[in-house]
Amino acid sequence: MKNLICIVCPRGCRLAVDEENGCAVSGNQCQRGAEYGKNEILNPVRTLTTTVRIESKIMKLCPVRTEKPIPKAKMFDAVKALNAISLKAPVQTGDVAFENILSTGVNVIVTRDISE
Amino acid sequence: MKRGLVIIGGGPAGLAAAIKASESGADDILIIERDKSLGGILNQCIHNGFGLHRFKEELSGPEYAGRFIKMLESTSVSVMTDTMVLDVTGDKKVVCVSAEHGYMEIEAGAIVLAMGCRERTRGAIGIPGDRPSGVFTAGTAQRYLNLEGYMCGRRVVILGSGDIGLIMARRMSLEGAKVLACVEVMPYSGGLMRNIVQCLEDFDIPLYLSHTVTDVVSENGRVSRITVQKVDDKRMPIKGTEMHFDCDTLLLSVGLIPENELTKAAGIEIDPRTNGAIVSENMETSIPGVFASGNVVHVHDLVDYVSMESERAGQAAAEYLKNPSEVSCALEIKNGASVTYTVPKRIKNTEKPVGVFFRVNRIFEKSAIRVTAGDEILVSYPRAHMAPGEMEKITLTSETLKKAQRKSIVISCEEAN
Amino acid sequence: MFDVAIIGCGITGAATAFMLSKYKLNLVVLEKENDIALGATRANSAIIHAGYDPKPGTMMARLNVRGCELAETLSKDLDVSYIKNGSLVLAFSEKEMETVKELYDRGVKNGVPGQKILSKEEVLEMEPHVSSAVIGALYAPSAGIINPWEYALAFAETAVLNGCEIRLNSGVTGIEKADFGYRLHTEEGYVDAKFVVNSAGVDSAAVHEMVAPKAFTIKPSRGDYYLMDKAEGNKAKCVLFQCPSEAGKGVLVSPTVHGNLIVGPNAVSCTDAHRVNTTQEGLAFVKQMAAKSVPDINYRNAIRNFAGMRANTDRDDFIIGMAQDQFLDLAGIKSPGLTSAPAIGEEAVKILSENGLTLIPKENPVTTRKTLRFKHLSGEEKARLVKENPLYGRVICRCETITEGEIVQAIHSPVPPVSIDGVKRRAGSGMGRCQGGFCGPRVLEILARETGKPPLSIMKDKEGSYILTEEIKKEAKS
Fold first, then answer.
1. Best B46, B179, B204 residue to mutate vs chain A (most A CBs within 10 Å)
2. pLDDT above 90: residue B365
3. H helix or E strand, kind and range, residue A82
4. Which of A75, B117, B264, C427 has its CA 20 to 30 A from that of C201?
């Protein structure tokens, strides 16, 4: 039995995951918590939020995030890859800044409109 | 210059208030924002976790702000950015200045105060030692890193386990800094549990509960060493428990204070518990027609609730503009056992349900929130877990409010039997 | 070749430079730090003492009373924040009441004007927050409060406008006697001068020993202070002293010229005169002692704590006199040094002249100074100013309402600041309750822009106190 705190939402449910029993989750208040509990044992993932350079009159950096969570172990390498790129204004929230980061199948998207 | 509704602050509170006021029929709405763009502190909060309640999605700070900015664009609300409000008077005059528009005195029909909050500093908590560079509030470091593109430290100790500090532990780690420890004077964390997990545990950063920083040593003008000590029940350092960290930076995440200089200048009544204005359920302050919402009233941990609360303020301001009348307080909410504060503090209209935010002063496991009037328990809400770092919310129905045959009700918390 | 070289630009050096700058002289001030007034001048009680404390007949007594008198006109002429709010020495026992009477008598001998001994009722009526355990007090209406670094800056800036040169980062490392006077070796080359003034504060003994045998010892004494938010500023109207006793001089509670409240100091003798750290014990002592005078100070409203270093010596009096031919010591300038500074400056001029320095007054020396403070202007004046220069319409420091115009003006002032704290001391940005949390990054940006320096090179305070460690994502390519 492994005790975890669910990080899916700010509620912070205290989960118990039964590793012996197909990673059955208890203590969760929603289905997403059950998924999180199982994943956290089998393949922990996180949403990465960071910044990338942008050529813009008003901003030096553009905030970005992975569209979906990526494997926790790849966070540092993903930041490294993103540190090497630079965008060009204008960009809009939701624009893809980096496709398929580290072959995870997940895109990195812009999270702020930068108009010029 | 005369304006209908003047909203001071274009962060999440001001944006939500403006949009709701506009939807509720107010025209001639003006947002005054001191920064160059709307969005407030959300612009530097590039992490995710915003909007789960509001949009049922997990957004980053700029995305959350962006949604409101988009909504604002479809209204007739006008915005003045890069403009600082210098004074608000009791008769609703707003004095402000900007490089573009010059010095202005605006007579407002109604006002929403939405100035947000600021961080407690080293001086406020009295950390002794040298006074070198390298001691930053977490929010200042966040601005340097996320907006200006500069790191302000390589080896970091964080004092306080507030959310901004935790978020910065992760952020600085990802950008290459070594975060040595997070130190919290209380026996529990001040931030959300999810942040302890994904910002500290993920990066193997130890969290020292019941510890504090007792000395700052510098070398050549910059932090070089931090001393951390365990504290006793009275939060006094215990001799012999000293730990030393060689580091160049001390980040402080030791609490936020509502920014109420303008509120006080206007002569508005302040709740000493929150350091924010005392408000009724429509977010009206002690001056009729002046409303307040968001972190300027009390510090929230979720922006979703800031928006919700600010919509109440925006709607009430619009109603006030249509019918500027003074409604007296029907019911007062008092802090009972283990309740630090409540917002609102006063209820004017008992015909509608009233949402009440409050905080507890210690950790509760299986417990109950009780609302009482005299000896009578009006209603009770079970809770599996409560903590000071996590704001509680209950909704009092009109039936409950009417049951209270008194001028005041008390909210308290206790362990469930 | 300079006529006079002054070593150290604290309040003493600055005041001396100012006084000398009214004469036709070639002057230089050598300061080891990257800004002036970074020693005892920037961290002290900020009091203009009336002068009942020093022993009658001493130099200290005479210069204190004269300095107190000069503060009133100089602060007006040089636009320095100063309030003549008077002081009270509080007595809590009959024994302390006797001390109060002794101080009164000393004050009379020293020529302190307008002193009065107050009853308990009179004290409590004047100061409602003072503990009701008080039984009486000595009131000295000529005492006041001042902004100490602004006072030093006012002297230094005016001296510069009169042609005096101030060299920063120029600590004196050695002094050679020469036939013309002295050759002073500094970190930045050497300086030749006919006369030398030693106003090097805690380093004045070391500088003295570069030209003369050891004559005195500096015994540095550190004191911790609390600075409180303006919300506490009304807890004292006058400067509230406690009676000096065997146990020490007591702790004072006083408003500051900015409307804050200052509480402190303790006194700890130290070996390292350059480490000015506060300690848990020191701060706890200050709190405990201050509670005797004003019990209801709310320390949750503290915005800062700091420590100051007094250049105490093994002598009771100031050490003012010729150490060698053409070499004047202004050393051991402990409390009431801030008050005495302009009088010490006058004294220095007199002694130098008696020892061969030729003084020819300038026809029109600069003797006034005016600093623009946006928040003190009327609405109309503000409107006009912003129209003339839109930079005054951009508020950078929210807590203290300091505009970009004032910051730019400070950056280009006669003694230009090179650090965030240097800007703070001139413009007042970052002085408020958020302590530069919001405006720090913006001041850094403006300072970098106006001086053409990279942001990474901007210091918070002294050399070495860097703020930013690196720029991120520099390797990024589109």
1. B46
2. no
3. helix A75-83
4. C427
| DSSP3 helix / strand / coil % (chain A, rounded to 5) | 25, 35, 40
Q: What is the ipTM of this complex?
A: 0.92
Q: What is the mean pLDDT of chain B?
A: 94
- List the subunits that have 3+ CB pairs under 8 angstroms with C: A, B
DSSP string, B43-106: GG--SEEE-TTTTSS-EEHHHHHHHHHHHHHTS--EEE-SEEEEEE-TT-EEEEEETTTEEEEE
Class of domain C87-141+219-310 as given by CATH: alpha beta
Give the length of chain C: 478
Whole-angstrom distance, CA of residue B393 vs CA of residue C174: 70
Structural domain containing residue A72? 49-110
Query: What is d(CA C317, CA C322) in angstroms, rounded to the nearest whole number?
Result: 15
Mean pLDDT score, C4-11: 98
Instruction: Please say whether the beta carbons of C278 and B214 come within 8 A.
Output: no
Smallest CA–CA separation between A91 and chain C, in Å?
14
CATH class label, B2-118+257-327: alpha beta
Q: Any idea which fold B345-415 has?
A: Immunoglobulin-like (2.60.40)
Instruction: Provide the residue ranges of all domains of chain C, joining segments of one domain with +.
Output: 1-81+144-217+312-370, 87-141+219-310, 374-457
| Tens digits of residue pLDDT in C167-184 | 999 999 999 999 999 999
| Residue to test with chain C: of A50, A85, A87, A108, most C Cβ within 10 A | A85
Interior/surface letters C249-260, b for 16+ CB within 10 angstroms, e for the rest: bbbbbbbbbbeb
For the domain C374-457, what is the CATH superfamily, name and number?
Answer: BFD-like [2Fe-2S]-binding domain (1.10.10.1100)
> Looking at the domain B121-254, which fold is it?
FAD/NAD(P)-binding domain (3.50.50)
- B17-26 pLDDT, tens digit per residue, is 999 999 999 9
Q: Does A92 have pLDDT greater than 90?
A: yes
pLDDT of residue B249: 98
In angstroms, the CA B236 to CA B396 distance is 40
Q: What is the pLDDT of residues C96-115, one digit of tens each?
A: 999 999 999 999 999 999 99
Residue B384 has pLDDT above 90, yes or no: no
> Do B2-118+257-327 and B121-254 have matching folds?
yes
CB contact under 8 A, B174 and A58: no
CA–CA dist A91, A59 (Å, integer)? 11
- Cα distance between the two ends of chain A: 53
Tokens in use for B400?
């409950």
| Cα–Cα distance for residue pair B186/B233, rounded to 1 Å | 9
Are A101 and A74 found together in one domain? Answer: yes
A14/A33 Cα distance (integer angstroms): 9
Helix (H, G, I), strand (E, B) or coil at A99: coil
Residue B417, pLDDT > 70, answer no
The CATH number given to whatever domain includes residue A100 is: 3.10.530.10
Residue with tokens 């309402």: C401
> Domain-by-domain residue ranges, chain B?
2-118+257-327, 121-254, 345-415
Instruction: Give the number of domains in chain A.
Output: 2
Tell whether the model's pLDDT for residue C247 goes beyond 90: no
Residue A10 is predicted with a pLDDT of 65
Size of interface A-B (CB pairs under 8 A): 83
Residues of C noted as catalytic: 49
Tokens for C92, please give them. 């809590």
* pLDDT recorded at residue B382: 93
Residue A25 placed within a domain: yes
pLDDT confidence of residue A22: 84
Mean pLDDT over C422-435 rounds to 92
CATH class label, C1-81+144-217+312-370: alpha beta
Interface size A-C, in CB pairs within 8 Å, comes to 24
pLDDT confidence tier of residue C403, bands split at 50, 70 and 90: very high
